Amino acid sequence: MTIGRDDRIIILGSCFETGIGLRLRNAGFDVCINPFGTIFNPRSIANSVSRLVTSEPFTSRDCVPMGAGAGKICSFWHHTSFARPTEEEFLANANASLAEASRIWKECNKVIINFDTAQVWRHDGKTVSNCLKRPGYEFTHEMLTLDEIIECIRTIRVPGKDFLFTISPFRHLGEGAHVNTISKSLLHLGLQLEGCDYFPSYEIVIDELRDYSYFDADRVHPSEEAMDIVFKRFCEACVRI
Questions:
Q1: pLDDT (average), residues 89-101
Q2: Does the N terminus or the C terminus of the chain have fewer Cβ atoms within 10 A?
Q3: H/E element holding 126?
């Protein structure tokens, strides 16, 4: 897939993809970036795409008090950047973002999707986009199967739009490097089996740069320098002049 300044673009995924989207916007491209905030796993991204298609507003049933004494309201659909002091404020903000993004979704012709992890967290059996700092015992945690990832990809790829997929080089090390490797491998395999257009963000950072100097101090987030290199490669490979 290639993009030009005449395209309307939506980006969904992790904070890594937000960085690419902001660079595209600063370069003059028409891009909508993460209208639910950063999202990490294929199931949550597929759910978000379905919500953009239906435009179904959020209601008080979706409102969830954040944990850790935050004193704010959010939802399991959203990143905590959407949290507000009251339900009314949260719903006004969340639904305004949804309405605008749904309108853009109907008009856009290019979609960039960034998968970050195959691991999901569920609350009352439903996959969440963010645990909202609530106690861990409220959630179950598991790895999506390859079949489940493929199902998500098929839900995401609605007709009439061009899709480009990437995988974030962000390292999820909470359960160790081995589990992170399995997670990334499942995402790669799902995209390969479905024949998706793919840009190798992961490979550029992990296999080409291959140095912790290209990561932030936490050694899991790629640095701004790494992001600049990936964006330069993205422009060379995917941008029409």
A1: 98
A2: C
A3: strand 126-127
Residue 139: CB atoms within 10 A of its CB come to 15
Of 228, 209, 216, 204, the C-alpha closest to 20 is: 228
Q: CA 233: distance to chain centroid?
A: 20
d(CA 29, CA 22): 9
pTM comes to: 0.93
Quote the distance between the C-alpha of residue 194 and its chain's center.
19
Amino acid letter at 29? F
For tokens 């979704």, name the residue.
105
pLDDT band at 224 (very low <50, low <70, confident <90, very high): confident
- Tokens matching residue 79: 């990143």
Question: In which residue are the tokens 């435009």 written?
Answer: 55
From the number of C-beta atoms within 10 Å of its C-beta (0-12, 13-18, 19+), residue 212 rates as exposed
DSSP for residue 94: H
For the chain, give the mean pLDDT: 93
